[in-house]
Write a structure and sequence with these properties.
There is one protein chain. By secondary structure, the protein is of the alpha+beta class. The protein has helices spanning 7-14, 18-26, 45-53, 56-62; strands spanning 4-5, 34-37, 40-44. It has a single domain, classed as Multidrug-efflux Transporter Regulator, Chain: A, Domain 2 (Orthogonal Bundle). 52% of the residues lie in helices and 17% in strands. It has a 3-stranded antiparallel sheet with strand order 1-3-2. Helix 1 crosses helix 2 (18-26). The longest helix is centred in the middle third of the chain and has 9 residues, at 18-26. The relative contact order is 0.21.
Amino acid sequence: MEKHYRDRDLAEAYGVSRSTIRRWVSENRLPPPTKIGPKASRWRESDIQSWEQAGHASRAGQEG
């Protein structure tokens, strides 16, 4: 089973706030999370790894 990340997990990993994670999603600088329940969304590990390998992680941090 694939690992999933909360916004809190990503914020900690990238050294930003949870609101920054949500802003990056709204600005298409981070892939959107997957809905896993009526009130829960998570990022799939494979989506985050692909995003990082494409170099988007460093650019997202530089832009804001």
